[in-house]
Amino acid sequence: xxxxxxxxxxxxxxxxxxxxxxxxxxxxxxxxxxxxxxxxxxxxxxxxxxxxxxxxxxxxxxxxxxxxxxxxxxxxxxxxxxxxxxxxxxxxxxxxxxxxxxxxxxxxxxxxxxxxxxxxxxxxxxxxxxxxxxxxxxxxxxxxxxxxxxxxxxxxxxxxxxxxxxxxxxxxxxxxxxxxxxxxxxxxxxxxxxxxxxxxxxxxxxxxxxxxxxxxxxxxxxxxxxxxxxxxxxxxxxxxxxxxxxxxxxxxxxxxxxxxxxxxxxxxxxxxxxxxxxxxxxxxxxxxxxxxxxxxxxxxxxxxxxxxxxxxxxxxxxxxxxxxxxxxxxxxxxxxxxxxxxxxxxxxxxxxxxxxxxxxxxxxxxxxxxxxxxxxxxxxxxxxxxxxxxxxxxxxxxxxxxxxxxxxxxxxxxxxxxxxxxxxxxxxxxxxxxxxxxxxxxxxxxxxxxxxxxxxxxxxxxxxxxxxxxxxxxxxxxxxxxxxxxxxxxxxxxxxxxxxxxxxxxxxxxxx
Length: 512
Hints:
The protein is of the alpha/beta class and 512 residues long. 44% of the residues lie in helices and 18% in strands. It has two domains: 28-117 and 290-428 and 458-509, Rossmann fold (3-Layer(aba) Sandwich); 122-270, no CATH class. It has 21 helices and 15 strands. The radius of gyration is 28 Å and the shape is elongated.
């Protein structure tokens, strides 16, 4: 742990802190206006808005990354926020280097990549992290199961026989973790793998002296027996010993095989190559670096590293989110938190690769944790695919409901455009019609008719999202967007007069 120092405790109102070098929650990060010139205070987009979450939609080439995405990223960097950046494309690291350079924060970038100096042993971090929950076996078990979910992309499964296998897997992990901690006072994935794969497969083998000579499980049980009493954990050791020497060997071979295979099939990719090097060796950084102003960029783009890059980034994202949630002590006032807790952000372009079931829970309390989530993706169906399962649509919409600011760039997907129009809403609008006809009878009399009716129509029609400018030279490097924020009243213009409305149009520059 060369350059990584864990904080001793979460933020407390009684802690003395230096004057913050980040903006107040009510200071403008962006000034949004219909004409790009005159921005009244009603249209300032501030930190308090960013805490409520941002979702940016836009087709490929719509300007979502180079337009609104770039504007928000630059604002975060200029405001000295710490953050976590997940990457899907190989060129994203170059963009963030430019943002950091423009803000004078190149030294704040902490880039995690193959061949680099940074390592994050995720189980060791959870064992030694700040907070009273550190090192608790059940927290370690739940962390591992969350990694399993990330690897298998399972969402909302459970019940029946599945629930039984989940319980038995947790039991296996619980006893492997306890044995590693009791014997080694440390934990990592390779140690768990050696314990589980060397455990006895029958009661007879557990009593066999030859097995005891070559088994890592047997060797660690012997070491733990001598240390358990010193640590005051004799009862835990007895349960662990009985599991490995009696209960586990007594399981039916088919049951035992399924449980072990569930573990080893997931752990396998973390025990070799890139993931082993970055996530199962040393511990040189952690989420707490963001709280000091560092911006952690996981340069493991999904387009380059495929599933390995995805698993690794979802793993770290989950750990980062939990660290953010516990960093401010319960009872800390909003004023104390604003003065002492640096705002942090979570950034994911092509967010469909990284979203999972925990995001909705995280976002529901992100404001009190002073965390800004910014997700960018092409369309709504990409989230349906990412969540998967029978409840994919409801899960996706539940998650999106917790991201209050929604920025819509040009899009040709009807699902997304209709959903955007539904989000902005409908109003009662007057429709007028008229007609003129000429009678063919003698005299040729003219008949005129006129009328009108009140109808309920979209405030913004779905087709309008298909006609937004996408930037480039032909648009003077301006990317149009329609912005909606739940509960927000923007000040727009209608027929030359200011009018309050629940959305605003803005053109984001692609060049700065």
